[in-house]
Structures are given as structure tokens and as C-alpha cells.
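Protocol step 4 of 5: obtain the predicted structure for the target chain.
Materials: sequence only (see below). No template structures provided, no constraints applied. The aim of this step is simply to have a reference model before the mutagenesis design in step 5. Sequence pasted as it appears in the construct record:
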Amino acid sequence: MTANTMLSARLPEVDQSVSIETLLGVAAQATDILSQIRDAMLEPYPRKHAPMFTSAQVAALCGLDKQRFQYRTTKGDLPAGKSRGSGRSKEFTLEEAIAWVSETSTRAKRPTGARARVLTVANFKGGVAKTTTAVSVAQALTLLGRKVLVIDCDPQGTTTQLCGWAPDAEITDEQTLLPLIYGDQPDLSYAVQSTYWHNLDLIPASSSLFDAEFEIPAKVLKDSTFEFWEIMNRGLHPLTAHYDVVIVDTPPALSYLTINALLASDAILLPCPPEGLDFASSTQFWHLFSDIAKKLPGVLQTKRYDFVNVVLTKSKNDDVSRVVKGWLQKAYGDRVLPMEIPESSVPKGASAQLSTVYDLSRPDGSAAAYHRYKEPLDRLAEHLDAQFISAWTRVEA
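Step 4 output (C-alpha cells):
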């Protein structure tokens, strides 16, 4: 009996056709299972909890050595932390750690009157660690003393999920970008939600955000002069006085929302794994976006970005990756950042808990792997922050 004969003997011939009604049942069952997983892993809202920090970690965030840190604790002007067990070691909440950073950091502050710089994280290809990078960078920037707003433009709502909200269970249409897009709200102030992470706010997304891709062209059909690419820019502008940085996570497609995000931003970060198909997709990204942008009235003459960078994600050290890294360097030159975020089991373990590496109070598994993955993210946040400071300085001058 051949292998095919044996396989057909085991698999009875049944009708494999599927109706939309059946798909609705599949969707309901999958949503129920996801809810059960969330309930098993996470407590009632606020489900996620920020990590705790040891004295050594707080000192490192502040750039203080042990003696200097101990001296500052004696002055009584900063949180003292709570003792851990019977030892002298103490631990600090995220809010307390950020208070230490804000008080002791020599990093330049956002000048009075200067607005937030808007960074869009974008790639037309999925699976490039775009969302994980966006949220991780947002968290890392708060640990540098910045106040950050994250905007989720992806109807899948993964960013919203990582920020502690269940996209479809807890987020209504009125909390997303939709009221701005419909013209029911003049700006995005209505949509800002607090999160479990101190100094990190969120404008969330849910699956209903798909409606934007129908509503925006419908407005254009009704009014040919409607500047559809300016919706987010105008809605976001009043909020930029209240934050240091705004990070926009986009869907993996050249959508109306992606175009809005890219044209509302001051800077672009494109995460790209060193793989052949990802490199090819990145070239399409720049071509398609620039082709569209130059056809929009006034954009070609007036739009300028503080910086445009490519960061390598899911980076490996094999022969194929090294070849593609060479292509990326030749194609984008010094726009390719020197830090590489490695392929690692660490983000996979964190994502299984609906979290990022910054949510982990301590390494989940190998400490070496944890630090090897987190260190380039820390460097990326520091690099971006330096770029924001440079932009504030130019604008002030």
C-alpha cells in the first residue's frame, strides 16, 4: 500500500466547504478562548502591572554609582523604596524609578513651548517586530524621563493589547481614531487612555478601525478638495504640547491610516529583519510612499523629517543574514542604525504573556539572553532620544 493510499484510508472524504456563518462561529470560539487565556494570565483590569526595580536597577537608570545612590537616599527628597525581605536590598515601583530618573538625569528637557516629536514606526510587511519595537521603545523612553503617547493605527490592536487593554472587549469605537475620521471630533483629546505604565498614554485601536479605509475615500468622493492625508496631523496637533514623544504604530499595509501617520510624523523608523524578502519589501515601502506623497498638494515642497532610520530586527549571525545586511548598508547607508535587535526566545516568552521585555521584573530564562536582547533596545531608545533633543534644539534656535 502506497503512502497516498494509506493517507486516503485514514482521512474520510467529507465536505470541506465553509460558510460565512461557520466563520462567525469560529471567530466567536477563538475570541472566547483568547478571553479565557487573558483571564487565566492576567487579573481584572488593570490587568497588567508595571515591573518592580531593584536599587541597582534604579541607580543604573540614573547613571549613579552605588555610593552616590546611597547618598541620595539619605537626603529624603526622593522615594526610598521598600525593603525586600530581611535584607538591606530595596525595590521601587516604576513610578518611583521614573521619579529618580527625572530628578537626577542630566538629559536635556523638552524646552518650554516646544512640542512633542512624532515618530511613526512603519513597514508594509508583517512579522518584522514592528509593534514590539514600537511599544518597547515607548517604554524605554519613559525610563529616560520622557512622557510618551502611543497611537495604535492597526485594527488588529496588538499595540493596544501590549498596553494592557483588550481591543474589542474593552475598546469602543469612540475611544479610537474613528470619531476624528468621521468628523465628529475636532482633535484626538477624547481618545487618550491611561495605561498601567507610568507616563505612557495610549490612543487605542479595535477591529472597527477597518471602517476608516472606507470612510476616508468616501469623503474624498464627496469632496475632491478634502485633504485626507491631514486628518491625523490636525487631530494630533493639540496633544503635542502635553508629551515629549508621540509614537505611532501603523498597520502592515499602505493604507489611508498609514499615509496619515507618515505625514503627521516628524521621523520614521522602519524595522527590517536581514532577510531577502524583507529587504525587497522595504524598497517597495519607500517607492510607494514617496510616489503617493509627491502627488499630494504641497507635500513635496513642505514636508521634512527630522530623521529616517532603518533598524535591524530579528537579526541573526548566519551567512544569509550577513549578505542581506550588506545589501541594506549599500541601499540605505548611514540610515541603518548600528544597533541590531537579535532573533531571540526572550520576546517570544514575553509575548506569550502579552508583554514586552520591559514588562519583565527579572529575566524569564537565561539572564544573558535577556540582556543580549534588551541592550540594543536601550541603545535604540537613547539614540532616538538624542535625535529628539537635536530637533528641539534646532526648532528653539
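Step 4 remarks: The chain has 17 helices and eleven strands. The two ends are 82 Å apart (CA to CA).
Proceed to step 5.
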